[in-house]
Amino acid sequence: MRGIGILFIGICLLSGCKEKELPGKYLSDIRVIRQANPEKASIAPQPAPEKKTQAPEAKPVIAQNKFHIIIASFKPADKSKAERTVAQWKAKQQPASLLSSPERFRVSIKSFPTEEAANAALPEYRTITGREDIWVYKVP
Fold first, then answer.
1. Ranges for the SPOR domain (predicted)?
2. How far is residue 1 CA from its own chain's centroid?
3. Contacts of residue 112, Cβ cutoff 8 Å, sequence gap at least 6
4. Domain extents in the chain
5. Which pTM value belongs to this model?
6. How is domain 63-140 classified at the CATH fold level?
């Protein structure tokens, strides 16, 4: 009798594992930004529409600057880490700000009105931060 119960549970579990389509809110596009040196190409996520929430120590981003150099990205559960990162860069006299969306908290070290200006400044900010994994993000 016990074996039949286990078999029944197993069949129920397996029947629930049919291929199901993943909802759109879990999907994302990836945008590749090409640079002159193909060995240092960066990959940036294509952003989903963002809802801006203002963190206590983060200033709102100026609307005319739609291109940002992102130095860190955090999950929603790590909002406090993102806020600490912004505070650390501000303490180093850098104009860091927090960009928020339902999916991510991104730390911007500098914003620009054009993509060309942001890409031109990337090498300088790679030197300032000591990181090669920073990228340009366009606010939708």
1. 64-126
2. 52
3. 65, 67, 68, 69, 118, 121
4. 63-140
5. 0.54
6. Alpha-Beta Plaits (3.30.70)
